[in-house]
Amino acid sequence: MAQGVMIIAEQREGEIRKVSFEIVSEVKRLADKLGQKVTALLIGSSVRDKAPKLGQYGADKVIVADDPRLQYYTADGYVALIADLVKANDPAILLISASVQGKDLAARLSARLGVGMAQDCTALGVESGNLVATRPVYAGKVYAKVTFSDNTPHMATVRPNVMPLNQPDPSKSPEVVNATVNLDEKALRTKVIDAVKDAGGKVDLTEADKIVSGGRGMKGPEGFKVLEDLADAIGASVGASRSAVDAGWRPHHDQVGQTGKVVSPNLYIACGISGAIQHLAGMSTSKVIVAINKDPEAPIFQKADYGVVDDLFKVVPALTEAVKKLG
Ligand SMILES: Cc1cc2nc3c(=O)[nH]c(=O)nc-3n(C[C@H](O)[C@H](O)[C@H](O)COP(=O)(O)OP(=O)(O)OC[C@H]3O[C@@H](n4cnc5c(N)ncnc54)[C@H](O)[C@@H]3O)c2cc1C
């Protein structure tokens, strides 16, 4: 009978991503109710020494698949390997991060395993010993509670930045097991030759703690300078609405929303953004939302915790100065 919770730890350049620690933390909190052990699967090249950290957040066991061919994510390679390891370990629940990579992996893996999967969940619970996941539908207008059929594992991806991190316990060390990596070279149809880093070097929007976003109200690419200044002052990343991206003012990877990135920072400051449903779909789970807009009727104010009705080109520089004075 299927048993235990397995999470796929996501790493980039050998560093485990924060969302994976968030999932382990949440699962550890659920583990008592489920009465299940937590196993993390860590895949990559030269990543074995990172396994103990997963234990500090709550993993009882870490299975490490370490191979130079696994340095970069490819759907073919990762799905084949994970499907084999899932079948061999037979977990009752399988959780993956709802990052770009995680969503790609989960969709393909669920098809390979022949099980259902709930994408982009914002809460996990347990009812009668079974996983219940909460996920947004209709672009975040409604939240649906999802249960799973008898087929296991019950699969879900978890949105970054929504689940609190456990305090890591350095005295905890998980059982670490090496997995045998059997990859059929002929089945690997894509090969990543190199990964080119964004010159900005800022924190990825999906993991950012604070985001300052701009929309059509920024008037042009040069308008974003005031947002960059505020972002620098408070240690935030800069995002954008689709209008700003479509106009060529910002790169596509800055886009927040239904067809952009889904973010959940502690602080989201929306400047010159009207608050269309497709934008809200990408940021409505932010913990504190501040809107700066000269139109008091802008829909963003219905979502905002704090609002300023005024010209952003007056408000944002004043805010930046005030933050700088605070030191
Ligand atoms: C299938 C589909 C997918 C989409 N996906 C996305 C998505 O992922 N992300 C996304 O953002 N949108 C998305 N959209 C587009 C979305 O519907 C809106 O068109 C878009 O979000 C509007 O962007 P905006 O708020 O920047 O522009 P606008 O709606 O034009 O709003 C600009 C705002 O700026 C304010 N403003 C202007 N000047 C100032 C000033 N000086 N000071 C203060 N405020 C000022 C105005 O009052 C206004 O409220 C999608 C649409 C579709 C159909």
**Bound ligands:** flavin-adenine dinucleotide
- Helices and strands: which structural class? alpha/beta
Give the oligomer, counting copies of the same chain as homo and different chains as hetero.
single chain
Q: Any idea what the shape is?
A: globular
H/E order of the elements? EEEHEHEHEHEEEEEEEHEHEHEHEH
Strand percent estimate: 25-35%
Strand order in space, largest sheet: 7-11-6-1-4-5-12
How many helices does DSSP assign?
A: 9
Rounded to an integer, what's the Rg over CA atoms? 21 Å
List the helices and strands and how they pair.
Elements: E1 5-9, E2 11-12, E3 15-16, H1 18-34, E4 38-44, H2 51-57, E5 61-66, H3 75-89, E6 93-97, H4 100-113, E7 117-121, E8 123-127, E9 130-137, E10 142-146, E11 154-158, E12 175-178, E13 210-214, H5 224-234, E14 237-240, H6 242-246, E15 267-271, H7 277-283, E16 288-293, H8 300-303, E17 306-309, H9 312-326
Helix pairs in contact: 3-4, 5-9
